[in-house]
């Protein structure tokens, strides 16, 4: 291993493996980089005032003029007196006729109607509310319990709110790779980082036309191998994130008779060896403090957790492999001696 901490391959195998010890300093660096896991472009977006669109239903109040406010009668519900924005973006209103309203903010439309009514009514007082937000939607797909489109309203909708309404299917969702598609660009978000950054979901505002896709967790697993009680793939299906300690625990823990606590490795990038050298994280698990580190080190889907064998175990295995050969040689020698004497 060179002084830079990289284990370099032989000339025949030019791959490089970076060996990194799991230490408090590494965990601090990982926590500091969590903000970088959230695309900055999403954090920078700030919602604009709501703009009226086709399909919206408006309730227009003109004070002291119920005939303009409630043409269906004041006894009717608000929806019955709502005015629908037509597919071409226009709205019919008394004294104004057919007026283009799509693309206007609520305040812009209020000022527009107030100015036009002033020709017929002295000092009109106009108020406008959107009672049906139907023109702007956010689409949700994938491993959610509810995938109905959600409306973008005058109150900004955040990613956290949208996920909360849709409800993640914990048994099927791959929370490490949510995809938010916006304006032709796909942003990949690891929801497991939100456990350590609780305010981030409410700092990401959604805009009309956004598509949120949460993939299914059919093949997302961590592979626990070596000297553990039950070597097996460990799925992410019921948790938002998985620590190294949890992964080993689900495999039954370290084998107390054969494992080497010094040789606990997490191999990352093993599936893409041709393009990217793998990174190997090592945990010296011989002390309780080390397991505290392991509880904060988060594994990722596709990681391989390997626990090496203790020195005595390796020695016993070598002996067990040699003994049968030695027995055969001894038996053959004994048979040869008997045949010649």
TrEMBL record:
Keywords: Cell outer membrane, Ion transport, Lipoprotein, Membrane, Palmitate, Polysaccharide transport, Porin, Signal, Sugar transport, Transmembrane, Transmembrane beta strand, Transport. Pfam families: Poly_export, SLBB_2, Wza_C. Residues 310-330 form the Outer-membrane lipoprotein Wza C-terminal domain. Gene3D superfamilies: 1.20.5.70, Outer membrane lipoprotein wza domain like (3.10.560.10), wza like domain (3.30.1950.10). InterPro entries: Poly_export (IPR049712), Poly_export_N (IPR003715), SLBB_dom (IPR054765), Wza_C (IPR040716). It is found in: Cell outer membrane. GO terms for molecular function: polysaccharide transmembrane transporter activity; porin activity. Residues 220-307 form the SLBB domain. GO terms for cellular component: cell outer membrane; pore complex. Residues 46-130 form the Polysaccharide export protein N-terminal domain. Belongs to the BexD/CtrA/VexA family. This is Polysaccharide biosynthesis/export family protein. It comes from Dyella telluris.
